[in-house]
Design goal:
- This protein is mainly beta.
- It is built from three helices and 28 strands.
- β11 and β12 form a beta hairpin.
- The chain is elongated.
Amino acid sequence: MILGGLSTTSNGKLLETGGMLYISATTNGEKCDLKKGKNIEIAFPKKNNKDGMQLFNGNWKKDQINWTVNKNSVDLAQTFTNVDERPVYIGGNEALYKFIGSNYRNSDEEISGKIYASFVVNREGNVTNIKITKGLSRKADDEYLRVLKKLGKFTPGKVQGVPVNFTYTLPITIKSEDSDISNSRNYSNNRPQEPYSTKTDENIKADEISYYMFSSTKLGYLNCDRFLYYIPSMVINYGVIVEDESNVSINIIYHSFKSIMKGELSPKKVIFYNSLLKEKITIVAIKYFEGKPFLAIKETTTSEKSEKDLQFNPVTPEELKDEIIKLNKFN
């Protein structure tokens, strides 16, 4: 990102990044765009989940990139409860209820009532993450879990025409007196019981728990980011003093979150607008003299006073790249 002149801000607001991509397509040397109505799926690997991640598009203006939210993207890692098109069991609801009714086997327990269950119909239409959310007894609940695990595929739910994960709820009614089972919402239960537990089938694919996943209708610079929120009194314009600002590029890397800011040139100073106060950072400055790179790296803490006394050292292009790669140790 540093060597590419990239940063993580959106209209002056600081972003935390979860990954960045540049995707292009050409044919016979000519640039291509995605066909209207089509999308690509993008996955950003993650170590820990961070809420609020969105897909951003990068737009260049002069030598600065600005990130804007991709409003047409869909978060494919999210499990939706409200979609444009609900999942449909292959064969329809009648086939779904028939399958459950013909496969469920009543125990010898004298119980009547309703078992509440939910599961995720994933983007491929498979049933995963089955849960009994409110049960009747261990035997009855285990039997319903067994039946749900045998369910066939669904046509997946969709948002903006894109298949997504969807939480599907499917309660059933048990009537022990005539061994009847149905999906009716009305039932008679003369022996109300508290659910003994919530059981889960942890059958979740790795790509659903280890990646931020999105669909996109655009190519180009794509970033998985979230906005950082902070109190206004902690926002400052942080400065770094330089003798010759005409041929220097300076970035700051925050230590406590994944974010890079690129400074803007002003006389004898490089300014980082809307940076955060009292944050540990590393300053990375690169300048060229007679076509040769010089590098300065300094760890410090942001303050209202401008930083100075950067020590530039000559480096080869290979050494420059190696030193920048070492900065991946943060976050």
